[in-house]
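ERR on first pass: missing label on line 2. Operator R.T. fixed the label and resubmitted. Corrected input:
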Amino acid sequence: MTEKYTMPDSRGHFGPYGGVFVAETLIPPIQELTAAYQKYLNDPDFIAELDNDLAHYVGRPSPLYYAERWTRELGGAQIYLKREDLNHTGSHKINNTVGQALLAKRMGKTRIIAETGAGQHGVATATVAARLGLECVVYMGAVDVARQSLNVYRMKLLGATVVAVESGSKTLKDALNEALRDWVTNVDNTFYIIGTVAGPHPYPAMVRDFQAILGREAKQQCLEQAGRMPNALVACVGGGSNAMGLFYPFIDDPAVKLIGVEAAGDGVATGRHSAPLCAGRPGVLHGNRTYLMADDDGEIIETHSISAGLDYPGVGPEHAWLKDSGRAQYVNITDTEALEGFYALTRMEGIIPALESSHAMAYTMKLAPTMNKDEIIIVNLSGRGDKDMQTMAKREGIEL
Amino acid sequence: MSRLAVKFEDLAKAGRKALVAYITAGDPNPEFTVPLMHAMVEAGVDVIELGVPFSDPMADGPVIQRACERALLHKMSLRRTLAMAIEFRKIDQNTPLVIMGYLNPIEAMGYEEFANAAQRAEVDGVLTVDLPPEEAEASTELLKARGIDPIFLLAPNSTPERVRLMTAIGSGYLYYVSLKGVTGAGHLNTVDVSNKVAEIKANSNLPIAVGFGVKDAITAKTVADIADGVVVGSALISKIETNQDDLVRARSQIVELLSAMRQAMDN
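pass 2 clean. output:
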C-alpha cells in the first residue's frame, strides 16, 4: 500500500459501503452534525478540552499490558492487552461518548439519546450526560434489559431514563430503530450519540476518529515497550468500534495484520450467530450500506450471541470495506469458545474480561501458538466482565 | 404520461384533491389485501400506496411496525407484494399504484431486477423511505427509463434547495411529511402545514401530497384545502388491528372512513 488511506469520501462512502440512507427528516440534523464535526475536528480548543477529559475523566492513556504468563502458557507470539477495561465506566465506549457529548454541548443540544446492547454504551452515555447536566434517554431491547440488569441499574442511578424496547427481536437493532424514531421526533433539541462505527455518515468516521486514540496509544506503547511494531491486532467486532479504533492508526502499516473477531453464537453453520462479515451479505440498514444478516427477501434475520454487545445483524461499513479490500480479515468465535477465552484470561492473568472481549481472547488462544515467539499480538481488551457476572453465575447454576 | 400525472391533472381540472391511501401488503394476511384495494378505490381512493413489509421499519410508528410484523408472519416479501400488484391490475387498469417501503428488500432483489418486475406489474411509482436523493441516482434512472415515477419525501425541516433537488430527480408527486416524527403520530398544525406547502409550491411544479396526522374526515378536509393530495395510512391500519377477529368488519370500517374523507374533501 503506497497511497495513504483516506476513507471515507466526502459523502461518507467506504467504496460501495457507508453513505447516508435515512428518511428525509433526518437529513438536516445529519448535515448540521457533519458541519459541526468537521469544524471541531480541527479546532484546537475542542481538541484541548477532549484531551483533558480523556486524561483526567476517562483515565487515559490505558496501559498496554504484556500478558507474560498467558504468553508462556500458549507458547507462541507475545500477547499484549490494550487495557480499555480500565477506563472509567469499564470499556472503550467512553472514549466516544466523551467526544460526542462535547460536540453536543458546543452545538447547543440539551437532550441526549442513545441505543445500547450490553449496556456499556448506555452507561458511558448516561455518565457523560450526568456530568454535563443533559437529559438522557437510553433505548435498550427488552431482552438485553433482562440479561444486563446491572447496567440498567447503573444508567438509572446516573439519572438516565431507560426505555425497554419491545418491538422486533427486542435486542440492539430494535433499540437502534427506536432511537432513530426518537431522533426524528425530537431533532431540534436532541443529539443522538451512536455507540458504534455504524449508522449514517458522519457517524462511522466520527466514532472511529474518537476511538482511534486507543490505537494511537497502542502503537506508541508497543514501540516503547517492545521496541517494535506488532505483527497482528485482534479485536472483537459487533458494530466494530473497538476494532476500528485499534485498526485505524495501523491501516497504512501493511505488515501489521488486522483481525476482527465476530460472534459465531452456536456456530455459523447453525444460522444462530451474529457474524455478518463472515456469513452475511451486503445491504442497507440503519443509515448505511454494509454486510448484514438478512434473508433472500432482504428481511433482517434475528441474531444470536452470548454477548449482548455483539448481538447485532450489521457491522460498521468501514469493516465491510476492509474485508472486501483484503486489508483486514474477519474470523468468528462461538459462544463456547468465547467462554474458554473468558476463563483463560481470568485464571491466567487475573483479569475478568467482558464476554464481548472474550471473543478476541478466544481467537488469540488459537492464533498465538501458530506464531513465533518473537512476534507480537496486540489484543483489545475492550471491556471488563463485571457486567456479565450474573450471566456467568447463572450458567454455572449459582444464584447471586 | 404516467398514470400518476394523468390522475393529478384530471383531479386539478375537476377542482378536486387526491385521496391517497396506504396499506401494508399482506396485513393481516395475504388474501385480505387485493380485495381491500378494490374496495378502497370504490370508496373514492385515487392513489394506492402499497407498503412492502420490512422487519425494521425505522421511520414508522408502532401501528405500521405491527402491520409489518403481522404480514411477515405470512412470509410476505417484495416479490409477493409485486404479485399483488399484478393481481390488482387484472381488474383495475386505472388507479395509480405506488410501491412504498425500505431499501433493503430492493437491494436484495437487485435494482434492475426490481425495476423490471415493477414495470411488469404496471406499478406507477416507487417511494423508498430510506433512500434520499443523494443515494438514489442509480435506482431513479432505472425506474424513469421504465416510465415509473420515483417519489421522494419532504419534511418540515427540508430547505428550498432540497425541494428543488427532489423536484429535479423525482416525479409523480412529492410526499410532504407534515410533522417531525414517525407515521401515526401527533396532530396537524394547519398553519405550519399551510405555510410549508406554500414554500414547497414556490420551488416545485409537482403535486404535493401531505401525510402524517391525517386520521378522519376533518383532518382530511383540512389538508385537502392546503395540498393537492391527502395521504392516510395508520388510521386505516388501526381498523385492521382492532378487528382482527372480524376482517369483514375491518374492511367495512376502512371503507366507511375513506368514504367520509372523500365526501368531506369534495364538499
